[in-house]
Amino acid sequence: MGLFSWNCMVCKHPMLHNMGVVTPGVNEWMNRVVVLEKNGSILRGPYDGYGRVGMTEMKMEWKDHKMINGPECYHEACYKAVGSPTEYTRASLHSIDQGHFFSDGAHDLKEKDIPDAIKKIKKPLKTWKIKKKAV
Ligand SMILES: [Zn+2]
């Protein structure tokens, strides 16, 4: 099986592996992730591009060749920005570019710009606690 990934629930960029696709100072933070699983487990660590977070294999359930109860994925920084939710809500979308085959600049979001990404979300999940700054 080749490389694969899911998009972060917050910034919509994929979890990135750390074998040459991240750019230091720009998006290397997208390698550190938090994954909520349907069974209640919470995985934290670097994503390896092949379904492992740290040393742990993500749980994948299949039915009629479709994945069911897929993982709810976050970059660690995005996860903290929405209040570190612990309750599983729904599966993340598969990354069309597999978190690997993308052009330069496609995932150039800096960690400091996460709050702007959050502002663009139309329907935040109920489990999130987003701090609203007074303007
Ligand atoms: Zn993110």
Question: Can you walk me through this structure?
Answer:
- With 135 residues, the protein is mainly beta.
- It has one domain.
- The protein is built from 2 helices and 7 strands.
- The strands form 3 sheets. It has a 3-stranded antiparallel sheet.
- Zinc ion is lined by residues 8, 10-11, 13, 75, 78.
Give the count of helical stretches: 2
What does the average pLDDT come to?
A: 94
Strand content: 15-25%
Structural class: mainly beta
Which shape, going by the Cα principal axes? Answer: globular
How many domains comprise the coordinates? 1
Task: Tell me the major beta sheet.
Answer: 3 strands, antiparallel
Biggest sheet strand line-up? 2-1-7
Tell me the helix content: under 10%
Determine Rg (CA atoms, Å): 14 Å
Give a count of the beta strands, DSSP E runs of length 2 or more: 7
Bound ligands: zinc ion
Low-confidence stretches: none
Distance between the termini: 48 Å
User: What is the succession of H and E elements?
Assistant: EEEEEEEHH
Indicate the topology.
Blueprint: E1 32-36, E2 42-46, E3 52-53, E4 56-57, E5 61-63, E6 66-68, E7 72-75, H1 76-81, H2 114-119
Antiparallel strand pairs: 1-2, 1-7, 3-4, 5-6
The structure holds zinc ion (ZN).
Zinc ion binds next to loops.
In short:
By secondary structure, the chain is mainly beta. It is built from 2 helices and 7 strands, in the order βββββββαα. A hairpin with a 2-residue loop joins strand 3 and strand 4.
Features of the shown structure:
single chain, about 140 residues, mainly beta, three-stranded antiparallel β-sheet, about 10% helix, binds zinc ion
